[in-house]
Amino acid sequence: MAPVPAPELGIPDSSSTVDVRIIDTTGYGKVAADMMFTPPLPGHETFVFPSYSILISNHEKGKHVLFDLGMRKDWETFLPAPTVGFVKQIMPFSVASNVDEILDADAGNLGITTKSISAVIWSHHHFDHRGDLSRFDPSTELIVGPGFMRAYTPAYPTNPESSIQESELASHPVRELDDAAFTLQLGPVPAHDFFGDGSFYILSTPGHTVGHLAALARVTSNGNGSDSDAGQNPSFIFLGGDCAHYPGIFRPTTYKPLPQQIPEFPRSAFGTSPCPGIWLQNYIHPQKSATEPFLKPNPRVNEIPEKAMHSLSAMQEFDASPDVLVCIAHDGGLLGNVDFYPERLNGWRKKGVKNKVHWNFCGDFDVHAGKEKVEADNGGNA
């Protein structure tokens, strides 16, 4: 099937860019797949997911911000007891380092430490994104999305049902971006020009939670710079937070259908590379579709399911662009396949990263088991 042309995103021109570095926070959880999405697919009954923190550097402004902090190392003793019990029951987590420890070790000699961070942006308030804000300078601002304070404060212990500690909000200045702050429209989502120069936009993507935020970082401008291909359009990185918990929830689409061949198919047990897309379509996809996502989000993971689906659809429009690399908070397929901190991700397009990682998640599925199931359901015929 021929792809539908990607929608116009209407991103304003700018010569300003930011550096983007994905930090592996060393926080990993394991969860039953059906807790996050449906239906469970062959070979993918559970999955291990990382929690990333993203370092954004605007050198023209001399500003460095973090988008999410991942999971804090002392979560078992710090988080409210009901939250700790919940985490241990559904997704046991291990964390080796806090983000501040990674930054202050400064493995790349960047000179960017916790004292350099002017703001921390929470995509949302869940425990695996908040990190440990107390480890940052008291002047570091906490940025949250529209409606956050009304929905999630007072915090624990004043509100014993809250998963947020009051100390997390009291230790730093909190700035809630209200709806009026989102004066631009990028594709189908309201946007806020964070630095005022078109280099980094905060996007209002509610649904998973009230005030959930995504972001769009401009990493090359009009084909200029060492990370660009001459004459190319500007390139961007879309930080999706928890708009989706897994790539199979927003891929494939009519804009980017399953291809005839998936090169470098990562499942070694499959025994061949590339993998014919039609096998995934016929043996794995619940609707045998080349243009609908493999999976649907479990409605229980989203506070406002209808808004979550709108934000998911919006992310698909960005994902359709050859100039945008989508990175969600828990995409394990990025590990080992893209440049991580202290390296920059700015050169992703020049390095062909999008083609490499876009279908990487398909390697989680067991095509052989799917074929056997289809044959059993059809009386021995695939």
From TrEMBL:
One of its GO terms (molecular function) is metal ion binding. It holds the Pfam family Lactamase_B. Residues 48-211 form the Metallo-beta-lactamase domain. Keywords: Hydrolase, Metal-binding, Zinc. It comes from the Eukaryota. Belongs to the metallo-beta-lactamase superfamily. PANTHER family: METALLO-BETA-LACTAMASE DOMAIN-CONTAINING PROTEIN (PTHR42978:SF5), QUORUM-QUENCHING LACTONASE YTNP-RELATED-RELATED (PTHR42978). This is Metallo-beta-lactamase domain-containing protein. It comes from Exophiala aquamarina CBS 119918.
